[in-house]
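Quick one, T. Sequence first:
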Amino acid sequence: MILEFRCVSGGMHPIVGAVWYRIPSSLGGEHDRYSRYLCSALSMTMHTIKDCEEALQLIDFVKSGKSVEEEFGWNDTLVTFRSGIAQVDILIEEQQGTLDGRFNLDEFRKAVSAWREFLLMPESLESTLRVDIA
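C-alpha cells:
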C-alpha cells in the first residue's frame, strides 16, 4: 500500500496569512479502508512531531513486550496498539473494533514514521511524500 502526503493551500486568512492543510491519502487497492481509518488516524491524532513520537514510543513499547496494550488518540479517533495490530476506531461511529480499522503494527509504524517526516517539511505545494508501507 502506498500512502501519499501532500500540502494543499487553504487560501489566505486575514489575520494568520497563508493557510495550509496537510493531507494523507492512500493509493491503490483497499484505498477506501486505508483512507477512512489509517489516514484519518494520522490527520486526526498526530498534528505535531511530538504526537508522532509519542505514538511511535507506544508502538515500540508493545512491540518490545514492555506493554500488552497502549492507546493513543483524541478528536473522536482512538488507536489501540496490541501485539501485531493497530486498531483504529472512529468513536462517533456505532461499531468499534471493525476489521476494516485493523492494521498490521509494522505497517502502521511505517505510516507514522513517514507522517512525522512529512510534518518536518515546509508548508508548500512542493511538499509531497510517498511511502510504501507494505
